[in-house]
Write a structure and sequence with these properties.
The protein is mostly helical. Helices cover 53% and strands 2% of the residues. The two termini are 27 Å apart.
Length: 495
Amino acid sequence: MTRNLSYDQRMARRQSISEGHFRSSARRDRDRIRYTRYFRRLSGVTQVAHSNEDQLYHNRLTHSMKVAQVASALAKIFLIREDIDPKYLTGNRIGETTHPDDDSLATSLDPYVVEAAAHAHDLGHPPFGHRGEVVLDNLVEKASDGAAGFEGNAQSFRIITILSSQNPDWGCNLTRATLNATLKYPWDRDDPEAQDDDGEPDKWGYYTDPGTRDEDAFRWARKPLAGRSKEKVLEAQIMDWADDVTYAVHDLQDFFRSGLIPLDELFREAIGEVGSEDSRLDEFALSTDEELGDFKQYLNAETDVDTSSLDVAKFFRDLLQIFEGDPRSLLTPFSNTDEEQRDLKLFTSMLVRRYLEAKRSNDPKHVRLEKNGGRYDLKITPKYEDQVETLKRLTRYYVISNPVLMQQQEGQEEILENLFRKLMTEAKDAEGTTFPSSAIPSPYSERVKRSSTTDTPLYRIVVDLIASLTEKQAISLHKRMHGWAPGSIQKNLIG
């Protein structure tokens, strides 16, 4: 029976039955991720602000789709550049390639692998954004007496290797290439690489809990990279940069449009401070630097980011200078006219292009591949890394620190904390019984009953359940378990 096979045996079996398929293995990986319920679920998970607001903000699904598009585009840019030695790249000029598991993963590049990884990178994000991630991490750490935690990237890896049941209990059956492309943090929670400046666990790529089998999946994925265990493969580096660019640019688009980020004022104050070569802009210049000054002060006070190489005022001014549309629409508060919508879309496209390739083919390449021994690494000019980080910080300063959003998050924390405690109590009562738990939806109730034989910790099953919910499902389950809204007895909240 396949359930009793080791991870190595399972994957070898998958390889034997997948040969001769009309799609490349990378395309098949991408499609399998697209068709999981975990991918569909992302439409109900917040990116920064809830998508039920008056403005149609990006959610985790729309974000993931755009990361996939940007990452695939960047991979194809590298494939067609003439100065890249093609012998180090698996694939032809259009990226229609197979990606066998025994390829040298450190020297490969396949746009379909990059796209698959982008689809998968946010699967593990729980309800309520990054705040939810922190809450669940603290709850699991307490439940495990400090031995384990929760991390969105590790949960994504767990989903594609274990939880998403293409076949029973072995995930989506993806190639090593795709699994490694998802691993932005190829180490576990206890590795020194996972520690922040205070020595606390920060970001890691897989769980090591007993009975979870995540570590087996990780070791299988990394087997061809023996001796380079902590290296991010090139495809993971490309996906990571695309994630940063997409997050920075499209959040800026969302919140300028809704009036939360005063981009127009920042532009006008930058013109007044730095000056402009374009006389059309002079009339819009502001002599004050209230918003710009406050934002620069915020950047200087941040201890986890270094934008010291960036002149912030000049950066904003230069964005206007290179904008190919009429900059006037960016110098007044957004009022949603057709012209403003077109210009904002053009501005967004310009920003994405700026952080993928040089404007002209003979310009210096600020995003490039650098040969490192027998492999390539992605290299980004520090100036452009600082620019993307500055755009991300705009959202943190004006939106994430917004008192109204923080009030909302306090309530969301309470929902997750109450759900975890209630479900842990139910799981302990149901463990090893034959009678189904009334409070834990299937298939998680089945996993609870099997936990004594599989050695899977109850806290991991409970957090798997919570992390699989949309925000609407989490709120509904919380109301039901507290008697605030009974709902239908025919409704499975996990469906």
